[in-house]
Fold:
Amino acid sequence: MLLLVGYFLGLYFFDSGIGGLIIALVVWGVMSLFAFFRGDNILLALSRAKKISRDDHPRLYNVVEEMKIASGLEKVPDIYIIDDPALNAFATGRDPNRAAVAITSGLLQKLNRDQLQGVIGHEISHIKNRDVLLMAITAVLLGTIVILAWYATRILFFSGMARNRRSSSSGGGSGQIVILVLAIVLMVLAPIMAQLIYFAISRKREYLADASSALYTRYPEGLASALEKLAASTSQLKSANKATAPMYIINPFRKKGMSASDLTSTHPPISERIRILRSMAGGASFADYDQAYRQVHKTSRRIVPASAMATGAIGLRAAGLEVTEKEPDEIQRARETSDLLWRLSDYKTITCDCGTKLRVPPGFKASSIRCPHCGRINPI
Amino acid sequence: MTWYIIVGVVVILIILFIVTYNRLVRLRNQVKNAWAQIDVQLKRRHDLIPNLIETVKGYMKYERETLEAITKARNLAQQVASSGPAVRAKAEAELSSALGRLLAVVENYPDLKANQNFLALQEELTSTENKISFSRQYYNDSVLSYNNRTQMFPSNMVASMTSFKASEFFEVSVAGEREAPKVSFT
Structure:
């Protein structure tokens, strides 16, 4: 789009498309660089994510820290909450030391500790595997291919046309016609191919992130049951962004009943991911995930790069290593989360003696407030 | 001509040596770093225990022995804090099983379960327990790949020339540790 605009602007101002094209290329380059260096902040701001600290939600913070330890990252990524009932999470940041994970409040309510661990493990592995960087580079490279193809076909097209007109009297334009047809085919196909490659890489990284999550948690069932809950929910994330779709745990733009072999999706179908995770009977290593993948797909292709599979057999989490406390149930989690969100938007929460929670907005001036339920006067 | 070949082979060997050596150094640092992680988490657990004892003491009149066992195990674990993985793993396993015994009887004290302070402590303790096992997992993975490098051909030649020694795993040696923390509050 930008290129077209640049092209026609150039056509208008410089009497040739090329000058405009160069301007467009420069602008595009600056934009991608900008997106690369500041994109995470912009993305977080766009999705209205709020940063939280350890005291805001100790459990979430602990889970992230646990996964940071399991993955061997150096720094705990920043943690953001998005006030949205949709179930989704994403990771961002161009290198592991400047990374952030964001999860929706809906997710925080719906998932128990093991499931949350699986999801955070998935996001942390996007950070650990530098997927944000990889996808940015892929996008830039493929974008360049598209531009070059478009530019080349333009030249062919116009020069072909011009010569055609001149040589029409002498006949013999069949060579030009072949070139013309080829050019048109290329022009149409190049962007589509680039898109398909981009999606294919993105899906592959999703599988790798699932495999890594299983490896970190040693408990594929956690992520599998979390994905099940995510698949069951129908609400869509309001603030999703197309450019960053590969970083979400599930495709934020998914439609219902997406077919299993959808080539134009950034994510593999959830049902398939769940099936692979559930087929990991033997252990939690990459080799086990790979085997499960091949079993589900009935192919001999590998999904995890062979270089990553050097480590030996890794067992699933021994059931006895965990203190299985009685976890807060969904209602408690919902209360926790809504308390957190009110606090993040600077509301004060006062619990009246009758048990009613009073939310005091940030601009409230008076020094006390009357409980509407029992009539007690509560100081602020 | 033969000179060029000889020089070429030597250069390639030197480059291979440097690459292998650097990889060994990186892996050894990773092991050290992973060990530091375990250390942090074990210390954190030691620090949590006085607080925990203080909180539950008032409620648990009949569990003096359990509490004493925890304090004792903690002090012992702190004493061996600068020893090698095998010694520490044993002391920490004792502490884990003592803690497990305490958390198992919490069910008998409904007042305690309603205490906000205790609930926060419980979350911290659970998470620290998880962090210990995750850092141990990462440490053992690092040790495995480091040891593989030091023992497999051809990197073992570089390793023995430059005195890289295999590291020790942090293994759960006491049978009690495997079962004890399995606590159900339901």
Residues 173-186 of chain B have pLDDT under 50 and may be disordered. Chain B touches chain A through 36 residues (CB under 8 Å). The radius of gyration of chain B is 23 Å.
